[in-house]
Amino acid sequence: MRNNNHYRKIWVEEDVGIGAVHNIIHSLTDRSQKFFGFGYDHCAIFQEMGHATLYLPDKELKRSRDFYEKFFSNKKNVANLGRMINRGINDYSKILWKAEKIRLADLSNEQLWHWFKKFEEIFNQLIVLFTVIDEYNFSNFEEKIMGELKELADDPEKVFLVLTEYKKKIISNENSYIFKQTLMEVADNLSDKIDFSDLKNLFHEENNDIAEKKWLIKQLKLTGWVLSGVETLALVKYWRYKLRLTYMPAVVYLDFLMIMVFGRLGLIPLDGYYYFSEEIERIIFQKSPKLTVQELKRRKNGYFVVYEAGKTQVFWGQEARKKRDSLIKEKQTGGREINGMLVFPGNVRGKVLLLSYTRPENHAKKIKQMKGGEIIVTEMTRPNLLPALKKASAVITDEGGITCHAAIICRELKIPGLVGTKTATEIFKDGDIIELDGNNATARIIK
Known about the structure:
The protein is an alpha+beta fold. The protein has helices at about 20-35, 60-75, 75-100, 110-130, 140-150, 155-165, 185-190, 195-200, 210-220, 225-265, 270, 275-285, 295-300, 315-325, 365-370, 385-390, 405-415, 425; strands at about 5-15, 40-50, 50-55, 170, 205, 305-310, 310-315, 335-340, 340-345, 345-355, 375-380, 395, 415-420, 435, 440-445.
């Protein structure tokens, strides 16, 4: 590992055990390489307290953005990706319908584990697809199109958002318990039964009014690769939200199966998340002993996996933290101002409500206590934050770009949004009074 090859934080995901970390690594590397011709040669994931953070080196970010700029510029690639996404969602729907008919209580431990692995295989397809269309992969493509729009329109950001609307829109079932909690909170409340109606009906699609988009295309006389590019981004934005709403119930059912497996083996879920898949298999099929209390304590204190050119290094506890800190770029701690990309205009002052996915277990409680007018600071907006977003005066995120979920929601709710700040959740704390300056795309602490 070379210290001059700094890693930077890309995303934070909740409800991730140490076994799932390796699934994500494989999805980012060899699986992605197999299906799309690109896989990361270097990446790292830090896991603790049920959440995981992905880090990528600068050179790998550049390599992926260069690759996907060409990838998304090719109509055949986009069409093939669309077919794969539809197939992945259909495969998930089929196995979920089958799952509803299975009496899990009648399965032996071995049969339950085999069913879990079969469902996990479908789930892994969704992860691979989601990593391809994640925001950080096509920022070059977005910036290239935005550069052209700046030459054609007085308000290119607004025009961009309109042009990347798709002919269909996704309507989520906001009454679902999955939307009212983080995935971690859902997992904590799972019992021996699960409601399949929510898992199968988390969203539906309707026709979208794109009259303004059609008018703009004519007014700006968009043709060629620019027109093709905005249509591709509209598709990608639509696919990403649709995949997220497929991925979420898949996680819930996967958690449900895992918790059932843990219960059969006499493990509490919090401990089970710190077992590797092969360790669970050995307990089931070879009657191997469970982990000691000391080993579980060691694993809960931090887990860092570094993947470099096909080789994996693993670090635990304090050593994991030291290794992570030696690789990542220095945090912007101590600062009072950040900048990002403005996705909906406006200037606002307010109190910070920090809803970080490094602590997803307290979201529902904090949202319930909202008074209204708070500025939400988070890594990235997700469906469970929708009730909070409707009460907020603005949104600031670490992750994302102009077609991300936060951008979509801010435009729908007509509240100022600043995305892609990278460090908002590190700089701002609960209760800080901050100002979002839409004129300069910045946010700063007032007191």
